[in-house]
Design a protein that fits this description.
α2 runs parallel beside α5 and α3 packs antiparallel against α4. The protein is built from 5 helices and no strands. 76% of the residues lie in helices and 0% in strands. The protein has 169 residues and is an all-alpha fold. It is elongated. It binds MU-OXO-diiron.
Length: 169
């Protein structure tokens, strides 16, 4: 495997684990303010990010490439309001999308078609993640200031259940 592609794929394990850590912090915020449904939603989001990390980990191992695990950074977002959390989520997903595109671009440059095919799932997934983050913001804008509506929204998010990723390696 090309050195740069390998390096970026390996880094992505860390980025996805950081994403899990960040969403755990979001879940923690909502638990603290008594919105258990939001806390549940972000807890499941954190689980999905751990799955993403494992997919990169497994892909490298399947390709007989060395995996190097680095330290996971402390979540660095200032969370002072519900909307802060949701905006931080969207900003973070856009950043992750840019990382996936960078790896794709590096793989494209060296005609690494297998890595490009592996990344196709993530390109689509990032589209969904950004849509979800945007939807959360829209809903909070619409309902966030009315306690009864916020309660209903919280109930809706409490219903989210974990499903394993559709990508199997
Ligand atoms: Fe692993 Fe939310 O992207």
């Amino acid at each position: 495997m090309d050195k740069r592609v390998h390096e970026l794929l390996n880094q992505q394990i860390n980025k996805e684990l950081y994403s899990a850590y960040l969403y755990l912090d979001f879940s923690n915020y909502f638990k603290r303010v008594g919105l258990d449904g939001f806390a549940n939603w972000y807890m499941i989001q954190a689980q999905e990010e751990r799955d993403h990390a494992m997919l990169f980990y497994q892909y490298l191992q399947n390709e007989s490439q060395v995996v190097t695990l680095e330290a996971i950074a402390k979540p660095d977002k200032e969370l002072n309001s519900h909307m802060d959390v949701l905006l931080a989520g969207l900003e973070h997903e856009r950043y992750v999308t840019s990382l996936i595109h960078d790896i794709y671009s590096a793989a494209y440059d060296v005609r690494d078609f297998r890595t490009m095919q592996f990344l196709d799932w993530f390109v689509k997934e990032q589209g969904e993640e950004e849509t979800n983050a945007n939807d959360m913001i829209t809903k909070m804008e619409l309902f966030g200031s009315d306690p009864k509506s916020l309660y209903m929204l919280n109930q809706e998010l409490a219903a989210r259940v974990y499903t394993a990723p559709s990508l199997v390696l």
